[in-house]
Amino acid sequence: MYSRLEITVEPDKFWDHCGIFGITNHPEAARNVYLGLYALQHRGQESAGIVTSDGRRLHLEKGMGHVADFFDERKLTRLIGSHATGHVRYSTQGASFPRNAQPILIDGWRGQIALSHNGNLLNAAELRFQLERDGSIFQTTSDSEVILHLIARSRKETFEEALMESLSVVQGAYSLLIQTPTKIFAVRDPQGFRPLSIGKLDHSWVFSSETCAFDLIGAVRVRDVECSEIVKWDLHEDRLESIMIPKPPKPAHCIFEHVYFSRPDSVVFGKGVNNSRYQMGRILAQEAAVEADIVVPVPDSGLTAALGFADQSGIPFRFGLIRNHYVGRTFIEPKQAIRHFGVKIKLNPVAEILQGKRVILIDDSIVRGTTSQKIVEMVRAAGAKEVHMRISSPPTISPCYFGIDTPTKNELIASSHTVEQIREFLHADSLHFLSLAGLKRAVGDHKNFCTACFSEEYPLPIETGRSQLDLFRKET
Ligand code: AMP
Questions:
Q1: Residue of the nearest CA to atom 6 in ligand 1?
Q2: 302 or 345: whose pLDDT is higher?
Q3: Ligand 1 atom index nearest CA of 404
Q4: How far is the C-alpha of 443 from the C-alpha of 455, rounded, in Å?
């Protein structure tokens, strides 16, 4: 006899980040942004928002939930105007409230300004303290809002100058779309931590975190917004103008976008994510060969690397784990505990594939190790004779301060355990991680990536970032 209660899926809680999308000069601007955000849903599932402009005023709709759940015909109809920007979010900083959803809209002496931010600012708490002391009243607990206050308080004459002045004091990761009634600005920080691409759709310019959103609406990728670049579009001129932030570009693109976050059908930092992941799998097979009967991916995160591993090793690829793609945030579970329920609701082993087999299990990363442990056990319980875990990135040893929500250092199993200790914890027959050199080779570039989560080499000093994050975390 079961009584029923609602539970929340824990593993997703602190993870994920944001996606941004914008379009100029289009009769169906809001609907295109809606579709763009729909294609970027994997980058943030907590809240969604769109702001449009009719040339005089901005119109905003935002709230909690998935894009397709929050927006309906009525809301989209209210979003009038021919240029629009939007945001999907899962909090990296700031609590999960409706008011923290983006775009954040303010109405100051410069007029209306809306901001969509992907990234994480290192000195937001410090700047916020100064701004509040000088009289600013914040509407959110999100780090992104400081940029708007800095613009609003700037004494510079033009909006562009005020934006440049504001960006010269913020530190950290920011890919931004900033919209006023007549303009859109697409901005990337000097390191270009997070992606942001420019596309073209007939007479419209399009901006997106990932190019998979261009594909959905039939737009074509033109180029990336460069590191330290502000790309300005003005309704009256209808062309793009490039302005540089007075900070030299120092590329440090997030390698984890290629390992895990971005969709494999996207071109990110000018490189196809699918190919990067495939190469990670191939190089992993060269570095950590093992005799086995089948290669099984942990779907979806391990899929592409597993294909590369299978092709390189000649060991057949099999779908030994099936993912339920329709798992929502909350669901009903029988009160009487079911072992590993949280993982089972998402993944189920295919016994007829695994029975009696020596299995190479491929996933992209190990963070806390708890999910992987349950998956190994599940594969064994389904009859696998041996389970060899292969991970298509190096051990995750350090938290990210640039917009990917990793847990604190002491929660990262690899920060305090050797590979052999992690293998024991997972109950795997063997465990290997891709080397850092192998990962860099797979993305075809040795210099321009931030690898801090794997190397602890941060491209910016993170002392402030650390205390900022603690400050925001306490509050959430
Ligand atoms: P665990 O074994 O608990 O460390 O979980 C590992 C799984 O988490 C792998 O399948 C990864 O793809 C996935 N993962 C790694 N980083 C993240 C992240 N930031 N957000 C969501 N899932 C992640």
A1: 366
A2: 302
A3: 19
A4: 16
Is 453 marked active-site?
A: no
Distance 280 CA to ligand 1 centre (A): 17
Q: Are 168 and 160 within 8 A, CB to CB?
A: no
Bridge partners for 106 per DSSP: 113
User: Which residue matches tokens 């609406």?
Assistant: 217
Q: What is the pLDDT of residue 345?
A: 87
Confidence class for position 476, pLDDT limits 50, 70, 90: very low
According to DSSP, the residues that pair with 60 across neighbouring strands are: 51
Sequence-ordered list of residues with C-beta below 8 angstroms from that of 459, at least 6 positions apart, any chain: 191, 250, 252, 450, 452
From CA 191, how far away is CA 201, in angstroms rounded? 28
Q: Which domains does the chain have, with CATH numbers?
A: 14-252 (3.60.20.10), 274-325+338-444 (3.40.50.2020)
Residue 329: per-residue pLDDT: 57
What DSSP string runs through 164-195?
A: HHHHHH--EEEEEEEE-SSEEEEEE-TT--S-
Ligand 1 pocket test, pick from 194, 347, 367 with the greatest ligand atom count within 8 Å of Cβ, gives 367
What is the atom index within ligand 1 of the atom nearest the CA of 15?
20
pLDDT digits (tens, 9 = 90+) for 8-61: 333 333 333 799 999 999 999 999 999 999 999 999 999 999 999 999 999 999
Angle at 347 between CA 15 and CA 410, to 5 degrees: 35
Q: How far is Cα 411 from Cα 341, in angstroms, rounded to an integer?
A: 22
Q: Of residues 18, 227, 450, 453, which has the active-site annotation? A: 18
Instruction: Considering only CA atoms, give the Rg of the chain.
Output: 23
* Region of residue 192 (left: phi > 0; alpha: psi -120 to 50; beta: else): left
Q: Which of 296, 362, 371, 391 to mutate to test the pocket of ligand 1 (most atoms within 8 A of CB)?
A: 371
- Residue with CA closest to ligand 1 atom 11: 365
Query: Any residues with Cβ below 6 Å from ligand 1, and which?
Result: 15-16, 260, 298, 301, 363-372, 404-406
Mutate-to-test residue for ligand 1 from 280, 301, 391, highest number of ligand atoms within 8 A of CB: 301
